[in-house]
Specification:
This protein is α+β, with helices and mostly antiparallel strands and about 350 residues long. The protein is built from eleven helices and nine strands. Strands 1-4-5-9-8-7-6 form a seven-stranded mixed beta sheet, with helices on both faces. It has a two-stranded antiparallel sheet with strand order 2-3. Strand 6 and strand 7 form a beta hairpin. Helix 1 packs antiparallel against helix 2 and helix 2 packs antiparallel against helix 4.
Length: about 350
């Protein structure tokens, strides 16, 4: 009689366990089967009235029923846990190839990248990185740089003059004049920054562009020193050994003045469209600082002299990143900027 009830209880509870759709239903099935007041417990209570032999047999039958039920409960619990995990995985599944939600990582502007390279390079060569006002006075942008009043650079077509007589700096040289006044010789400094010229804008001309100028003032500074520093700088920028040559060039603020060319890195000097078959690509202007410029800023040219150079950061960025239209650089177009 007890056997049947145990068999019946077992199969009913196993069925209830199998059909449990939720952990709560499973718990209810467990309580019904294994609870203190559950079916097996009830059956157990009646064992006292049995003969020892019978009790032993029923006891075994109860234990095997309990084991089966506990295994069924564990298996079902496992299924629920599995299903819950899959549910969470499905719910929380993220496409790791997608960009992370929230603010996208920004991009450094190509000109910023190149400017920072120069700043690190020259800082490692003992140069101070200077900055200065973009709205400048006529004195610092022209007079102090030996650019006479009659010099065409002062004309409207080149310079943005402001009411009150100031202007938008046409080069970062005024920063170096302020540096000479503040630091005094000996000195090594570079002045990267934004400059403005009243240019008609097209694929290779912008009214706003970035320059980097630099100078070193000390005793007996030679053109050889100048060439050494320019080779070191360009080798670092182009990340390969470069061959340079100097050609005479005129700038009011240096004497002698030079244009510095690099042997074409594409054709190795044999001639190609990039170097217009010349084998050389002009990189920058440079020279020994004009004694008038030193004197104007209170530096005695009898005791001190120096070299100076200037290059177009915008132009270098266009070469480095093969940008064919200068207007992209100030376009603010994310499609362009996100490439860098
Ligand atoms: C002081 C003394 C001398 C800086 C120099 C150049 C030559 C030069 C151009 C390069 C490309 C401007 O952006 S660009 O068009 N600059 O070629 N710059 S020597 O000479 C100085 C500067 C400051 C006090």
């Amino acid at each position: 009689m007890l056997d049947e009830s145990i068999r019946e209880l077992e199969s009913r509870c196993l069925a209830r366990i199998a059909s449990a759709a939720t952990p709560e239903e499973l718990e209810a099935a467990r309580v019904e089967a294994l609870g203190r007041k559950g079916g097996l417990a009830q059956t157990g209570k009646d064992m006292g009235k049995l003969a020892p032999e019978e009790r032993k047999r029923i006891g075994q039958s109860l234990n095997s029923a309990r084991e089966k039920l506990e295994q069924a409960l564990e298996a079902k619990k496992g299924q629920f846990a599995e299903a819950a995990l899959r549910g969470r995985l499905d719910a929380e599944w993220i496409d790791l190839t997608l960009p992370p939600p929230g603010p996208h990582r920004g991009h450094l502007h190509p000109i910023t990248r190149i400017q920072r390279e120069f700043e690190e390079l020259f800082a490692s060569l003992g140069f101070t990185v200077l900055d200065g006002p973009e709205v400048e006075t006529e004195y610092y942008n022209f007079d102090a740089l030996n650019i006479p009043a009659s010099h065409p650079a002062r004309d409207m077509q080149d310079t943005f003059w402001l009411h009150g007589g100031n202007l938008l700096r046409t080069h970062t040289s005024p920063v170096q004049v302020r540096g000479m006044e503040r630091l005094g010789p000996p000195l090594r400094m570079i002045a990267p920054g934004r400059t403005f010229r009243n240019e008609s804008v097209d694929a290779s001309h912008e009214h706003t562009f970035y320059q980097l100028e630099g100078m070193m003032i000390d005793r007996q500074v030679s053109v050889a020193n100048l060439i050494h520093f320019m080779k070191a700088m360009l080798t670092a920028v182009f990340r390969r050994e470069v061959i340079v040559r100097l050609r005479p060039g005129f700038f009011p603020f240096v004497e002698p003045g030079f244009e510095l060319d690099v042997q074409c890195l594409l054709c190795g000097g044999s001639g190609c469209p990039v170097c217009k078959q010349s084998g050389w690509v002009e990189q920058l202007g440079c020279g020994l600082v004009h004694p008038n410029v030193l004197r104007t800023s209170g530096i005695d040219p009898e005791e001190w002299n120096g070299f100076a150079f200037g290059l177009g950061l915008t132009r270098l960025a266009m070469m480095r990143y093969e940008i064919d239209d200068i207007r992209w650089l100030q376009s603010g177009d994310l499609r362009f900027l996100e490439q860098f």
